[in-house]
């Protein structure tokens, strides 16, 4: 189950990054920063899957709590990564935030789907 979650998250993330890159190809402001955002969110999402797999083996009843703990942690780490870009480029801060929210919610929806599947089993 976790292997399927890893693979599907990787594929959906890659497709989403490709579409995102194609849509913003004219924007020099973002250059490759959005790819770093996708990579970070992919690593954090896969880390949450690994955490959930570990918790499932140790105590399956705590699986929901592990997800609830992992999601804010993912947001804090992501936001701490994004803050230097926002502060360093004051005029384009909103652009970075908008281009951060797109992949964040893509990965969050995929993560939520797999967590619900894992919780049902």
Key traits:
elongated, mainly alpha, 121 residues, 0% strand, single chain
Rough shape?
elongated
Provide the residue-averaged pLDDT.
84
**Main sheet specs:** none
What distance separates the N and C termini?
10 Å
Q: List SSEs in N-to-C order.
A: HHHH
* Percentage beta strand: under 5%
| Uncertain ranges | none
Radius of gyration: 16 Å
| Number of β-strand runs | 0
Kindly state the percentage of residues in helix. over 70%
Given helix and strand content, the structural type is mainly alpha
> How many structural domains?
1
Model description:
With 121 residues, this protein is an all-alpha fold. It has one domain (2-120). The protein contains four helices and no strands. The chain has helices spanning 2-23, 33-58, 63-88, 93-120. Helix 1 (2-23) runs antiparallel to helix 2 and helix 3 (63-88) packs antiparallel against helix 4. The longest helix has 28 residues, at 93-120. It is elongated. It starts with a helix and ends with a helix. The model has no long low-confidence stretch (mean pLDDT 84).
In short:
With 121 residues, this protein is mainly α.
Summarize the topology:
Layout: H1 2-23, H2 33-58, H3 63-88, H4 93-120
Helix pairs in contact: 1-2, 1-4, 2-3, 2-4, 3-4
């Amino acid at each position: 189950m976790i292997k399927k979650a890893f693979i599907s998250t990787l594929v959906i993330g890659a497709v989403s990054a490709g579409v995102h890159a194609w849509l913003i190809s004219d924007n020099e402001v973002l250059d490759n920063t959005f790819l770093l955002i996708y990579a970070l969110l992919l690593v954090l999402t896969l880390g949450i899957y690994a955490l959930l797999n570990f918790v499932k083996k140790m105590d399956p009843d705590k699986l929901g709590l592990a997800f609830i703990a992992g999601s804010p942690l993912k947001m804090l780490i992501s936001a701490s990564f994004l803050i230097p870009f926002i502060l360093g480029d004051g005029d384009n801060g909103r652009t970075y935030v908008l281009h951060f929210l797109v992949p964040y919610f893509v990965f969050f929806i995929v993560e939520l789907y797999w967590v619900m599947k894992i919780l049902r089993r």
